[in-house]
Amino acid sequence: MKKAEVFADIRDTLGIVPGFLETLPESLLESEWTTFKNLQLAETAIPNKYKELIGLAVSGATRCQYCTYFHTEAARLFGATEEEIQEASLMAKHTMGWSTYLNAERYDWDTFKREFDQIAAHVRASQAAAV
């Protein structure tokens, strides 16, 4: 696809061609746009609202103001509530905190996996008993 065709598709989809897409090298433009459109905007195995909440959590952890803004607003466009947006942010904080602690303490990986597998087995058994 030629640059003009890609830009036309972007304009049809987004209403404008954002500058950050205009600055991509022409050799990457079509593939980057196709990936963006098919993963970010299309319905996939993960509903769009959840993909955006995941994106928000990752953006917060990486401290990218561009991505945090994008994913927050996109989550809203796909129906996320303010409570869901806040929870995604808190989940990122929670995950980063435990990651920092476990890595700083050098908690044994094999022990961690074994303990979590025991926890998962217990929860599965409890769920099965409840049914």
What this model shows, in words?
- The chain is an all-alpha fold and 131 residues long.
- The protein has one domain (3-130): AhpD-like (Up-down Bundle), CATH 1.20.1290.
- The protein contains seven helices and no strands.
- Helix 4 (48-62) packs antiparallel against helix 5 (65-77) and helix 4 crosses helix 6.
- The longest helix is centred in the C-terminal third of the chain and has 24 residues, at 82-105.
- The model has no long low-confidence stretch (mean pLDDT 96).
- Keywords: Oxidoreductase, Peroxidase.
- Pfam families: CMD.
- Residues 33-104 form the Carboxymuconolactone decarboxylase-like domain.
Q: What characteristic shape results from the CA principal axes?
A: elongated
CATH superfamily: AhpD-like
Q: Give the helix tally.
A: 7
Distance between the termini: 54 Å
- Cα-atom radius of gyration: 20 Å
Helical coverage, percent range: over 70%
How many individual domains? 1
What is the CATH C-level name?
Mainly Alpha
Helix and strand sequence: HHHHHHH
* Total DSSP E strands: 0
Q: What structural category arises from helix and sheet content?
A: mainly alpha
Share in β-strands: under 5%
Fill in the CATH topology.
AhpD-like
Spans of 5+ residues with little confidence (pLDDT < 50)? Answer: none
Residue-averaged pLDDT:
96
The main sheet comes to:
none
| Corresponding CATH architecture | Up-down Bundle
Pfam family, one: CMD
GO molecular function: peroxiredoxin activity
Domain Carboxymuconolactone decarboxylase-like: 33-104
Organism: Gaiella occulta
